Amino acid sequence: MRLVHVTVSDTRQDAVRAALEERQFTFTVVPTADDGVMFEIPVPSNAVGDVLDELEAAEVDLEQYTVVASAEAAMTTTSETLEREYAGRYKPMTAIELRTKARDLSRDTASYAALMVLSALIATAGLLIGSPAIVVGSMVIAPIIGPALTASVGTVTGDRKMIADSLWMQLYGLVLAIAAAAALAAAFRFGGFVPAELELPALELFGVRLAPNMLSLVVAVAAGLSAGIGLTTKGPTSIIGVMIAAALIPTAAATGVSIAWIELELAIGTAILLCVTMVVINLAVLTVLVLLGYVSRERASPEGDLDRSLVATGLLALVVVALTLSVGFATVQQVGVDREVAASVEETLEDPAYGNLTAVSVQTQYSDMSPYTGPRSVTVVVSQAGAADTSTFATDVAETIEENTGEDIDVRVEPIEYESASVRER
């Protein structure tokens, strides 16, 4: 429930009463000190927009004094009727509520910076030890959702200060995350806690974040669209914030780890992925707000500021679309190579000499900053029952891959040995 407080001049009282009574909105009227009155209107959450529209149609100046407050419950002659009418209806928040909710998501500078650093440290540890649970934990505490949403809200409302503050918080927050990750990774490396010559692309949680690809863009778009829809509803956005952090924080940590290992190509590739993901999330949120009509709903935005914001955002969208198409084409090439690699492994296993081997997984590692370049290595995990020459198998797989794809790839085979037995009736 919501409780709408609005001041109305004496000359508009009758028009407001008639409009509210026609829609079955119950209200009380309280005199004010400036020869006007205040209407207090308890309504379902989804009805706030209709109430404001009725007040505006009655020529009430909403900018003079309008407050929308939360209410635990309302017991009026029409409350049950209104609740039945608006129950189950998806109705986005009003622009006033939207802007307030977006601002409430923003933290103060100190706590925001501290949580970004802590989440990056946790993500770095998770990447280096290969623990998905620890990486997920880093996403839970990351406060990136506030800045990621307020930029789009500022765009549709023409609030240039909100846009600038949001973009700045996103930028320095991710820079802090990268710096913290680099510091911790360097301490691990030079402190002897992890091998100094560790092959970063071989790490499972690291290898998927080496460069932009279509799958990463799909995740970013879905996270942004979910955040936009969640922002416009009355529900909490904490769970959606985890999804946005999932697309950003581990990638920022991967960039920091690459810097600590002085791997320039990896650092550039992960940084590009981070930037592309951040931009795509912002544009996806903005797309939801525009489609839901928040540009036209905003009543107090300077038209010139709003136009300039939308033009700048449109140009940014064109850049992202071009990059998306480019990355999509490169991803198609990668998928084709991955299929050929998997087929080459199966073809090699058809040799009777490898009858004791069964493929468990085939993972292709790309270590270059660009998705256009070929793979660097392939890791084949096989189950082994009995004697088998895995070193010769690796050589044969590499030769088959080169014949099928023309790529000279380093093949690594990880055998998993097991013994089988059965109990038969005697």
Description:
The protein is of the alpha+beta class and 426 residues long. It has three domains: 90 residues, Alpha-Beta Plaits, CATH 3.30.70; 204 residues; 85 residues, Alpha-Beta Plaits, CATH 3.30.70. 60% of the residues lie in helices and 12% in strands. It has 15 helices and seven strands. The strands form two sheets. A four-stranded antiparallel sheet has the order 2-3-1-4. Strands 5-6-7 form a three-stranded mixed sheet, covered by helices on one side. Strand 2 and strand 3 form a beta hairpin. It starts with a strand and ends in a 9-residue tail after the last strand.
Count the beta strands: 7
**What shape does the CA trace take?**
elongated
Helical segment tally? 15
Low-confidence stretches: 298-306
Order of helices and strands: EHEEHEHHHHHHHHHHHHEEHE
Secondary structure topology:
Elements: E1 2-9, H1 13-22, E2 28-31, E3 36-43, H2 48-57, E4 66-70, H3 79-86, H4 95-105, H5 109-129, H6 132-141, H7 145-157, H8 160-190, H9 204-207, H10 214-231, H11 238-260, H12 264-291, H13 294-297, H14 303-349, E5 357-365, E6 377-384, H15 390-405, E7 410-417
Parallel strand pairs: 6-7
Antiparallel strand pairs: 1-3, 1-4, 2-3, 5-6
